[in-house]
Design goal:
- This protein is of the alpha/beta class.
- It folds into three domains: 31-131 and 228-269, D-Maltodextrin-Binding Protein, domain 2 (3-Layer(aba) Sandwich); 134-225, D-Maltodextrin-Binding Protein, domain 2 (3-Layer(aba) Sandwich), CATH 3.40.190.10; 285-491, Orthogonal Bundle (MetI-like fold).
- 59% of the residues lie in helices and 15% in strands.
- It is built from 19 helices and 14 strands.
- Strands 1, 5, 6, 7, 8 and 14 form a six-stranded mixed beta sheet that branches. The protein has a five-stranded mixed beta sheet with strand order 11-10-12-9-13, with helices on both faces.
- Helix 6 (164-170) links the parallel strand 10 and strand 11 (175-180).
- Helix 12 crosses helix 15.
- The longest helix has 34 residues, at 285-318.
- This is ABC transporter substrate-binding protein/permease.
- InterPro entries: AA_ABC_transptr_permease_3TM, ArtM/GltK/GlnP/TcyL/YhdX-like, MetI-like, MetI-like_sf, Solute-binding_3/MltF_N.
- It is found in: Cell membrane.
- Pfam families: BPD_transp_1, SBP_bac_3.
Length: 492
């Protein structure tokens, strides 16, 4: 009977999750096309983008602050202006953009996005606003060796995963294609001779070549990699699509996107080619300071709530009540059995379909929940390590079971598990970097911002490695100090 109840609890748990997931489709099916009216009513058009694709979208340093710039941003501003509203730009990982659109985190996505049959099944697309060609970025030392894609035989070529350039390179015979998610990583691989060339959108390739010494761009000679850039909207948002298409049509009459938006975006990019690495990185000190603040904020709040959740679910799992025990087991095993990155995205996008949760709040909630599952097992292990004689002695002195647990067992258990809790805190600080996928401005996010703005790949990585080490080493020393205090108190 107990096993049957336990299975029933697990079944209800997963049905609940599926129910949350199902709300997205129900909402979409029952909503009429009042998208444009709603946007005009709230006075703002929210644009989602991934600012790591200059000159279309990139993060620029203006008076020590992050600001998203680019040709696509100018396009979004023009669309919003024609709608009579203001534009709000929300940054997130490229892979999260369409999910954000489907869960109403953003109203439209402009990110050098290409319309595909698969994507068209879940979102609506505008007409093409720009047709881009494919360029090759090579080291200047290879300019006499590589003049087009014909010279890539028996060589390795890099391209962004999911791009049309990646698909085109994969089709070439005798060419090894290496896919990476971030353009800066591809440039680093090229400059360190890990690959012979990078296949990229022609305008993006030119932007990187203009701001990096030692590399240059050439025409690929490969027209199969050309692609149309489109704007994505929620499925069925025809009023928004029609409004955007009117703006696109007006811009195309004078070829404004190519003649005005792209050159203006390129002019806003910093020129760091002749500047030393130390000087260029010092300009971004405010970026790193902001990243440290958010990383510590996430970690401190998450560890507090993680310990609270850990104590609650550890006691529930040790409880003789089968319902409390089953709930605790479901929570602990499910959280420990799924990737934390997925949990962060689920809280932000999944629960966000019901309640509008800001990115920072969603990151803290997800990391707290994840930490709570691991802390629960640490605390449970600490409690079970205490001799049963301690509890029996407390009961014989007239203490209740709750008093015995509070005043006798838990204090001793925390002394035993202190090193493990310290390790969990260090791990949590490092895992906070996963929140960057939903646009939380912690250290990893700021590092990507500095890479995109400075066009220096290795230096920002080295800096945040040192920062993470200083933070975690300091935490470890503090935890070690209190561990010694506990041991000293025990010996006394």
């Amino acid at each position: 009977m107990k096993h049957f109840k336990f299975i029933a609890i697990i079944f209800i748990f997963f049905v609940g999750i599926l129910g949350i997931l199902g709300t997205e489709n129900v909402h979409a099916a029952s909503t009429n096309d009042n998208y444009l009216a709603n946007i005009k009513k709230k006075g703002a058009l929210v644009m989602g983008t991934s600012p790591d694709y200059p000159p279309y979208e990139f993060l620029a340093n203006q008076n020590g602050q992050n600001k998203i710039e680019g040709a696509d941003i100018q396009l979004g501003q023009q669309i919003a202006k024609n709608m009579g509203v203001k534009l709000q730009v929300k940054s997130m990982g490229f892979d999260s953009l369409l999910v954000g659109l489907q869960t109403n985190k953003v109203d439209m996505v402009i990110a050098g996005l290409n319309k595909t049959p698969q994507r068209a099944k879940s979102v609506s697309f505008s007409n093409s606003y720009y047709r881009s060609g494919t360029g090759l970025i090579i080291n200047k030392n290879d300019k006499n060796k590589i003049k087009s894609y014909h010279d890539l035989k028996n060589k390795s070529v890099g391209a962004q995963v999911g791009s049309v350039q990646y698909d085109s390179m994969k089709k070439l015979p005798d060419v090894t294609t290496k896919g990476m998610e971030n353009a800066n990583d591809l440039i680093m691989a090229l400059k360190t001779n890990k690959i012979a060339a990078v296949a990229m959108d022609q305008s993006v390739a030119q932007a990187y070549a203009n701001h990096n010494s030692g590399i240059m761009t050439i025409s690929s000679g490969l027209h199969s990699g050309d692609s149309d850039n489109n704007i994505a909207f929620a499925k069925g948002a025809d009023s928004l699509v029609n409004s955007a298409n009117k703006t696109i049509s007006n811009l195309q009459k004078n070829n404004q996107y190519t003649k005005n938006f792209i050159p203006a975006a390129i002019n806003k990019m910093p020129d760091n080619k002749n500047q030393s690495t130390a000087n260029s990185m010092w300009q971004y000190k405010d970026f790193f300071i902001e990243g440290i603040k958010n990383t510590i904020l996430i970690s401190v709040i998450a560890v507090i709530f993680g310990i609270i959740l850990g104590v609650i679910f550890a006691l529930m799992r040790l409880s003789n009540n089968w319902l409390l025990h089953a709930i605790a087991v479901c929570y602990i095993e499910f959280i420990r059995g799924t990737p934390q990155l997925v949990q962060i995205m689920f809280v932000y996008f999944g629960l966000g379909a019901i309640v509008n949760v800001p990115a920072l709040t969603a990151g803290i909630i997800a990391i707290s929940i994840n930490s709570g599952a691991y802390v629960a097992e640490i605390i449970r292990g600490g409690i079970t390590s205490i001799s049963t004689g301690q509890n029996e002695a407390a009961l014989s002195l007239g203490l209740s079971s709750k008093q015995s647990m509070r005043y006798i067992v838990l204090p001793q258990a925390f002394k035993n598990i202190w090193p493990a809790l310290g390790n969990e805190l260090v791990t949590l600080i490092k895992d906070s970097s996963l929140a960057s996928v939903i646009g939380v401005g912690e250290l990893m996010y700021q590092m990507r911002a500095v890479q995109a703005d400075s066009y220096k790949g290795v230096a920002p990585i080295a800096i945040i490695m040192v920062i993470y080490f200083v933070i975690t080493f300091t935490i470890s020393r503090i935890m070690k100090y209190f561990e010694g205090k506990f041991s000293h108190g025990t010996n006394d």
